[in-house]
Design goal:
Largest sheet: 6 strands, antiparallel
Helix content: 25-40%
Strand content: 25-35%
Number of helices: 4
Number of strands: 8
Radius of gyration: 19 Å
Oligomer: single chain
């Protein structure tokens, strides 16, 4: 029980730090003053145990033209970080792709903290602790991989959330619909924009 609380404490601290670091990541990518458009999605991919950071941006500008960009960091030999911005070739029917993106329910996906109860196995093993009956649970912790932070806006609706290693957790918990939806989004982005390679 104590180990679970320690892992949960570390995880929650990391989540809070990551949320606070979005502004830092924007500064690293030199996009801290970049406005958010009425129709836009940004997906940050942070490498858990390195300085790697990527940000995919898809948006409709004031002329209703769709634009796709990928920002990546590259560490140099002298420990400097270079920023590379790539203008992406968009699929021919970008409006259809945008509709498919929205169909992954990203406007409705809850924060990571709200699905934690789905990422544990109830062992059906009960014991008494401090005069209370407690259920035993098992929880996996993935320490390496990627954390994704997503922000999306569609005129009147918007959402933002962070998911930690969603594809790895989906392998362990294959019936969690939020992980299924987010993995579907990542696969769509890979196939349509050739980004976020595994």
């Amino acid at each position: 029980m104590h180990k679970i609380l320690v892992i949960l404490f570390i995880f929650l601290n990391f989540t809070i730090l990551f949320s606070q670091n979005i502004n830092k990541y924007n500064r690293i990518l030199k996009i801290e003053n970049l406005p958010f458009n009425n129709y836009e999605m940004r997906v940050y991919k942070k490498y858990t145990i390195s300085t790697g950071l990527e940000m995919f941006r898809l948006y409709q500008d004031n002329t209703e033209k769709w634009i796709g960009e990928l920002y990546t960091t590259e560490a140099t030999a002298n420990q400097q970080i270079n920023i590379k911005k790539t203008d992406l070739n968009l699929p021919k029917n970008i409006k259809l792709v945008w509709a498919k993106i929205l169909d992954t329910d990203l406007l409705h996906l809850p924060p990571w903290e709200n699905i934690q109860y789905k990422l544990e196995k109830k062992n059906k093993d009960y014991f008494t602790e401090d005069d209370e009956i407690v259920s035993s649970v098992s929880k996996s912790a993935i320490l390496d991989g990627f954390t994704y932070y997503l922000k999306v806006k569609t005129d009147k609706n918007e959402n933002e959330f962070e998911y930690d290693n969603p594809e790895s957790y989906l392998k362990i918990y294959p019936n969690v619909d939020e992980l299924i939806s987010f993995t579907e989004l990542l696969n769509l982005l890979r196939s349509e924009f050739r980004i976020f390679h595994k």
